[in-house]
Amino acid sequence: MFGGYMWKSAEILCRVCDINEEIGEILVEVGEINEEIGEILVEVGEINEEIGEIPSRVCEIITENSEILCRLRENNAETRKIQYQPNFFVDENHLKV
User: Fold this and answer.
1) In whole angstroms, how far apart are CA 28 and each of 5, 16, 17, 25, 36?
2) Is 89 helix (H, G, I), strand (E, B) or coil?
């Protein structure tokens, strides 16, 4: 009678060992997946950092464009003054850029 129970117990223990082995393999795969996710998160962080730099660079470009626009307006105003001066001659050596 005990022999049958022992046989069943051994059979159940073997199945438990097999299941534990499968669980161990799954945990290894989960660990590898978590490592890949970690690498992806690092890349996403780097991309977010680059994206964060874009607004400041856009502000720099806007400032540069504003400065250029101011210089163009000043040059335009000077050109108008010169155009409306009677008998005024400008040779190529005195043109401002």
Assistant:
1) 34, 18, 17, 5, 13
2) coil
Q: Which two tokens stand for residue 88?
A: 């005024």
pLDDT tens for each residue of 51-78: 999 999 999 999 999 999 999 999 988 8
Query: Which residue intervals of the chain are DSSP H helices?
Result: 2-83
Percentage above 90 pLDDT, the chain: 61
Total count of residues recorded for the chain: 97
Q: What are the backbone dihedrals phi and psi of residue 15, each rounded to the nearest 5 degrees, phi first?
A: -65, -40
Q: How many CA atoms lie within 13 A of 4 on its CB side?
A: 1
Residue 27 clears pLDDT 80, i.e. is over it: yes
**Higher local confidence (pLDDT), 24 or 88:** 24
C-alpha to C-alpha distance for 74 and 65, rounded to whole angstroms: 14
Structure-token pair, residue 62: 């806007």
